[in-house]
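Hello support,

Our group uses your service weekly, and this is the first time we've seen a run hang past the timeout. The protein is Short-chain dehydrogenase. I'm not sure whether the cause is the sequence or the server load. Input pasted verbatim:
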Amino acid sequence: MLSIAITGANSGIGLRAARALAAAGHHVLALCRNPERGRAALADINAHAVHPADLILVDLSMPDSIEAAADRLAQTVGHLDVLINNSAVFDQTLRDPHFTADGHELFWATNHLGPFLLTARLSPLLAAADKPHVINVASKGLVSMPRIRIRFDQLDDPNWYSPTRAYYHAKLAQIMTTFSLTEKAAGQLEATCVRVPAVRLDPDRVAAMPWLLRALYAPKNRMAVPAERLGDTYARLATWDGALPGPYVDEDLRPVRAPAFAYDEAARERLWSVSQAATGNPTWAW
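Update from on-call engineer: The timeout came from a worker crash unrelated to the input. Re-ran successfully.
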């Protein structure tokens, strides 16, 4: 039995992966932001679980919430075999930038800084496992942006913001962090990043959209990959026997190329440094 933490386990791919892993006999730690939706997801996951899953509340845009969640996890398990940083915000209705109490743009805080800090805080639990894995998530949409770069001098600058730009900017950072984590852990941890294609949204997510956005999104949603299939991708990676298939893989677990900027060693080190500073210089187990 593996201990597996999954952020965003209350819906979409995260919920499907949590269901599959719990049904296969693993101990799932479901990290969710919304208490009501989290409790509903926990009941769903545990309906077929061999071992009961646990609900851990966390808001990845809030460092204090991440610290509390990490403490709760340490009280729940003695080690962590797998961390799946699945949760992300991509709300197209946020036409203007929103900022956290710490002054960070919301997409950057939730989709990059939050997972970065959570991984650091959980690194002692991961280090206590025999063969720990970290699974991060990027987007196939980056294929259309071969020249995308980290805007080091504009990380929280509202002038260039749009939901799409902010989302893919943070996803590039997730790929680069995956590469850096593998290097810094020096064989003590394996990390991979999944290039997720367009995912079919759950009906409640579609229903919550403004009517115009819902109508525009409908054709894309019909063509999108079912969340169940991608949940299986996560589950396969989480339980992978042997070396992971690569640092950056597609939904079929085939190694793929990342945007060129991700291979710039100096840029990766700079990203790590600014991420450390922005999250309070957390201590890592490696």
